[in-house]
User: Which sequence fits this backbone?
């Protein structure tokens, strides 16, 4: 079968190709650039812990806490740990790590200087053409446009991209400086008593990214104005640390500057026959601290295992339901996020009426919303829970029990043991490393025994046989505990880390129903196909 064609070699496209390789699906990444990422310290990404865990080892920095202040008063301080601390990394470092990982994958190929100008589809696949000296035609089973905000693929599909332009702008500077605190990110509202907002987020190597909120539409920021912002902000912070109104900042090096503009746009469709959109080609966001690169990487994780099932098992009616679920889940989640931003933005930026939106009101409430966006939690930042996903067993066909994760939500990361005795974290087996489905048995006490002993005990033989017989690639794991789960609970988890169901015990027939639902088999689910 032909490979999947991935158009665009930014973080989303590269991550999608890597996930496909883990699912044993070949892909070709058509890169319109020469493949050399420009080093820009002022262009960074903040990744949620579960997103970072699905990628190769990254050389970013995790914050140990987050502090929100208004004027000179502390409003909120959030202590962060391995489960909650995001990873801050320069985007070119992220792309380099992904390219290095793909270099070692036999099923992935990145082709530089390949700008797509033609895309045609038929019942069996997709044909694209890349311009060059003589031009090249490419044949694929599916295609995914990950080619950014000005996506050629989206335009060739004729998909509209409505939304708002320049809802937020920030002046950005990357500095090498020793601030009065370490490894702690700061959101400072109305610094020095003057209207405004600035964030300071650390990076490796003593570099900090500083962002100043600008009017949505306004004049360009001159180099002189940027230097003035840097000097005024550092003087204020060093003065506060010294106990007076203004201080003398220590030496610093201005590494990079820029202006970041946040748009709000959402493509009308994310799937047209055998072609899909992901990342900035499908959505633009970034206001109120929301991390657009992280959302694009979630698109890739959601789509990869679905393409893999369709690629390995055939493009039948079940595959149609499965592939339609990508748009239903991801477009629905991003659309909800954009609507939340539209509601919160005028309240956070202009005040007034905030008490009607959130309890507490005032400075604490709007700083809390901004904190949620930056830390990937709450109303603006929490990972999506696909509560209405079509990939679930029909109601009443499966007995379930409550656990600390709702069906459709991302699972918590816990220590697990594989049947071969390998130990690790649950996230180690996601995004293709464990197949298209994970089955986790909660069995207290197994951690102190060698796996060869408990593999033949209790319900394990029956459960292991049931997992081996599932109609997709699945991995059986054992955990000592899981939040809210009783002993002998069986968690059925998709490859992207979202919970399908929590079963009360090893029930082979019901486990099979869950697996068939995840595959999108029409007789299991009660959801109409999209025409």
Assistant:
């Amino acid at each position: 079968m032909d490979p999947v064609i991935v158009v665009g070699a930014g973080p989303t496209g590269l991550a999608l190709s890597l996930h496909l390789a883990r699912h044993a699906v070949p892909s070709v990444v058509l890169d319109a650039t020469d493949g050399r990422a420009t080093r820009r310290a002022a262009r960074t990404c903040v990744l949620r812990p579960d997103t970072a865990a699905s990628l190769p080892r990254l050389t970013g920095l995790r914050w140990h806490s987050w502090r929100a202040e208004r004027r000179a008063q502390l409003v909120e301080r959030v202590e962060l740990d391995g489960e909650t601390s995001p990873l801050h990394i320069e985007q070119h470092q992220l792309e380099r790590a992904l390219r290095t990982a793909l270099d070692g994958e036999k099923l992935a190929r990145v082709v530089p200087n390949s700008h797509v100008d033609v895309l045609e589809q038929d019942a069996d696949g997709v044909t694209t053409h890349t311009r060059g000296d003589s031009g090249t035609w490419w044949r694929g089973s599916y295609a995914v446009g990950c080619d950014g905000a000005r996506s050629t693929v989206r335009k060739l599909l004729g998909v509209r991209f409505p939304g708002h332009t320049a809802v937020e702008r920030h002046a950005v500077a990357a500095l090498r400086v020793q601030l009065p605190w370490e490894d702690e990110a700061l959101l400072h509202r109305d610094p020095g008593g003057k209207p405004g907002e600035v964030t300071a987020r650390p990076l490796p190597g003593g570099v900090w990214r500083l962002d100043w909120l600008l009017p949505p539409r306004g004049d360009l920021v001159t180099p002189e104005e940027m230097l003035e912002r840097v000097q005024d902000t550092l003087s204020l912070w060093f003065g506060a640390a010294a106990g007076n109104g203004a201080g003398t900042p220590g030496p610093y090096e201005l590494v990079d500057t820029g202006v970041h503009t946040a748009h709000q746009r959402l493509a009308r469709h994310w799937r047209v026959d055998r072609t899909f959109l992901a990342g900035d080609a499908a959505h633009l966001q970034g206001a109120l601290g929301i991390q657009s690169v992280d959302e694009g990487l979630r698109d890739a994780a959601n789509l990869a295992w679905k393409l893999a099932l369709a690629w390995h098992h055939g493009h039948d009616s079940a595959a149609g339901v499965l592939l339609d679920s990508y748009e239903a889940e991801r477009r629905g989640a991003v659309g909800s996020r954009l609507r939340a931003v539209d509601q919160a933005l005028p309240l956070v930026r202009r005040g007034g009426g905030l008490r009607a939106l959130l309890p507490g009101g005032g400075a604490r409430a709007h700083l809390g919303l901004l904190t949620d966006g930056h830390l990937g939690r709450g109303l603006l930042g929490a990972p999506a829970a696909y509560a209405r996903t079509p990939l679930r067993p029909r109601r009443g066909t499966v007995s379930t029990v409550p656990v600390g994760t709702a069906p459709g939500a991302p699972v918590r990361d816990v220590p697990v043991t594989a049947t071969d005795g390998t130990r690790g974290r649950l996230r180690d087996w996601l995004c293709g490393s464990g197949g298209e489905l994970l089955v986790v048995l909660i069995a207290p006490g197994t951690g102190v025994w060698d796996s060869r002993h408990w593999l033949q005990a209790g319900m394990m033989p029956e459960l292991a046989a049931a997992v081996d017989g599932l109609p997709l690639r699945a991995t059986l794991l054992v955990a000592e505990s899981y939040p809210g789960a009783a002993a002998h609970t069986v968690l059925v988890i998709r490859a992207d880390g979202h919970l399908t169901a929590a079963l009360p015990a090893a029930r082979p027939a019901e486990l099979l129903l869950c697996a068939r639902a995840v595959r999108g088999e029409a007789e299991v689910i009660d959801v109409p196909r999209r025409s």
Confidence is low (pLDDT under 50) at residues 352-361, 522-531. Residues 232 and 246 are 9 Å apart (CA to CA).
